[in-house]
Amino acid sequence: MSKKQNQVWSLIIILGLTSLIIMPVFHAGCAGAWPSDVSAQENNPFYKDKVATLKIIMIPEDWDFCLEHAFEEQYVRADFWFDDELIPDVGVRPKGNSSLGQAVSFDSPRIPMAVDFNLFNRARTFYGVKKVFLNNGWSDPTLIREVLAYELFAKMDIATPRASFVDVWVNDTHLGVYTMAEVVDASFVARHFDNPNGNLYKPGLSAARLDWTEADAYRNINTGPFAVDIERHDPVLYTNIGGAPLIDLLRATGQEESVAAYEAIEKPEGNFARGLPPTRMPETLLEAVALKTNENRADYSALFRFLEVLNNEPDKTFVEEIEKVLDVDQTLRYIAVSAVILHLDNYIGVGHNNYLYEADGVFTIIPWDLNMAFGTFNCGIDKDGLINYYIDEPTSSRMDRFPLVNRLLTQPKYLKKYREYVREFINKYFRPEIMLARIDEAAELIRPYAEVDTEKFYTTEDCIRCLVEDFRPPDPFLGWQAGGPIPQMPWPNPIKISCLKKRFDINGIWDLFRIELDDEDLEYIESCLDEDEFTQFKQAMFGPLGSPQRPRMRGFGPNALGLKPFVVERYKSVRDQLVGIRPSHGRQGTGNGVTRGMCAGGF
Q1: What is the Rg, in whole angstroms, of the alpha carbon atoms belonging to the chain?
Q2: What is the pTM of this model?
Q3: Count of H helices and E strands in the chain?
Q4: Which entry of 243, 286, 420, 592 is 20 to 30 Å from 558 by CA?
Q5: Burial level of 166, CB count in 10 A (0-12/13-18/19+)?
Q6: Are the C-beta atoms of residues 486 and 513 closer than 8 Å to each other?
């Protein structure tokens, strides 16, 4: 770096850190209200028996910016009220993927958000928590699945983020019932692990199956027909300062001119050109594995050792060696809960949505992003396949594509222990009488808030209905919602096609999906089809009846089984699989048979 660049870098640091130092830590009357030494166990903000009112107050123009530029996920400054207590000067930004895209596509203010209590003051936390995510319930008409799923993982003594229901306001806008989830970060690690100084990873989709080793780590994965132009991040502006990239701190404190001054400098090739992990798609597996702590002094040696054992250790020494690099017992419990509650938007399904924490060379898996648990993310598996999802081969597709499951459960010792955990889980925590009571309790808790929640993605009737009734397209279309094959309508007989052709230039019902249909068009289509065909067409076109899903929004919208029937039927199936009444695996090694879509592997 040149002398001039060093000077600008120093200027940025001085400006950024000075703004943090002079910033007030608490408003008058709030000093000491959230000291960092108050443990979350002593004063837990993740209530189980009440819905907290959460108000975020910010400059109106900043809220407008968040809504108009949501995909930039840029922090703005705000005050955070939790019931009647205040934490001033927090960082708030839009966050998310599908959940954010759903809100933006509907032009809805109900965006998911990240709230960072630590951004402007490294000494401050929210009852020991540095950051929370506010999740908008886009995929779950009941609004309770995510909280229940986190509770179930925690009951099996798995390090798990806490979550609770909150009623969210931004300024005078009532956004409604959200889930507030604890973020997995350094403070989470410190609460759960004896050694809090290890490496925390959040593997992205291309790296998350853990089916690679050091030999593959630097291989370019951004090639082929789906390659994209990567926006490189400058490593200086994206250096981690106090839990956030420097650029976030500068922008949130109104110092865009410092960013602009630095970006205007002509930079040499080398480290600047290589940058940090890109925002759209990682270039290598090592970037995709996404180190979240110790970023500025990265050491991947333990990761490479773990991957080598997992993928290449001979069977006869595997048990001895894997226990040196993996908390096997905890991993078996994680797989057991995932398989029973059908959380397929994680490792056993699509292959991602978990964290890995390594300390002293030993890895632990941490659950994450549970809003589509209980079979809502279905990997293109039909309803019967979800209810009877195999417990002994609990992967969406071929077992060998999921080495963390395959290498463990093909060892008789581990398979036996895993089945013991499955049995313990269903008997202690997943029995219908226990789960149905908890579902009723959670539904009743949020109901008064949901009834006045005008921004939720579903009607209040939908919220109640999905507790007991499936809220998704019929089975021919279910893969649509999970990134599976495009739905194919059954074609009516030639007479019905001729009827449709009189009004529309089509060769089959699917061609109607390319047409903007008005009410008269729908009435005409109904006159051409029988009742079942028309119902199926409407559900494929517009999503499950009663939902606001727009036409032709493949991959979005609800896909939820009725929560109570799912629990009852899944419990019975798992119980029957354990005693041999029902098959617990298909053809050896095929998992649950998915061969197409993102759940089939091949990343």
Answers
A1: 25
A2: 0.79
A3: 21, 12
A4: 592
A5: buried
A6: no
Nearest Cα to 11, choosing from 274, 260, 252, 240?
A: 260
Convert 409-448 into a string of H (helix), E (strand) and C (coil): HCCHHHHHHHHHHHHHHHHHCCCHHHHHHHHHHHHHHHHH
Count of Cβ atoms closer than 10 Å to residue 439 Cβ: 20
384 neighbors 342 (Cβ within 8 angstroms) = no
Q: Is the residue at 232 inside a domain? A: no
Query: Do 233 and 279 touch, CB atoms closer than 8 A?
Result: yes
Q: What is the mean pLDDT of residues 570-575?
A: 98
Q: CA–CA distance from 577 to each of 191, 390, 496, 573, 583 (Å)? A: 37, 8, 45, 6, 6
The pLDDT assigned to 264 comes to: 53
Q: 290 in a domain, yes or no?
A: no
Q: Biggest alpha carbon distance in the chain?
A: 79
pLDDT tens-place string over residues 126-158:
999 999 999 999 889 999 999 999 999 999 999
Written as one string, the DSSP assignment of 293-339 is SSGGG---HHHHHHHHHHHHS-HHHHHHHHHHHB-HHHHHHHHHHHH
The pLDDT value recorded for residue 213 is 97
As for how many domains the chain has, the answer is: 1
Q: What is the three-class DSSP state of 511?
A: helix
Whether pLDDT at 543 is above 80: no
Task: Tell me which residue of 538, 540, 535 sits closest to 487, measured CA to CA.
Answer: 540
Bigger pLDDT: 511 or 415? Answer: 415
pLDDT for the residue 195: 97
Q: Is residue 62 part of a domain?
A: yes
* Within a domain: 63: yes
HEC per residue, 61-120:
HHHHHHHHCHHHCCCEEEEEEECCEEEEEEEEEECCCHHHHHHHHCCCCCCCEEEECCCC
For residue 93, what are the domain limits? 3-195
Q: Look at the block and give the residue holding tokens 């333990």.
A: 302
Token pair of 422 as six digits: 């499955």
What's the rounded Cα separation, in Å, for the pair 249 and 243?
10
Residue 534 is predicted with a pLDDT of 83
Mind giving me the DSSP string for 166-202? EEEEETTEEEEEEEEEE--SHHHHHHH-S-TTSEEE-
Asked if 348 and 396 touch (Cβ cutoff 8 Å), the reply is yes
The tens digit of pLDDT for each residue in 300-316 reads: 999 999 999 999 999 99
* Mean pLDDT of the 558-565 span: 87
- C-alpha to C-alpha distance for 193 and 311, rounded to whole angstroms: 26
CA within 13 Å, CB half, 229: 0
The C-alpha atoms of residue 176 and residue 168 are separated, in whole angstroms, by 5
pLDDT classification of 492: cutoffs 50, 70, 90:
low
pLDDT tens digit string along 27-57? Answer: 323 333 333 333 444 447 999 999 999 999 9
Per the DSSP assignment, residues forming a β-bridge with 85 are 82
Is-contact 512 525, C-beta < 8 A? yes
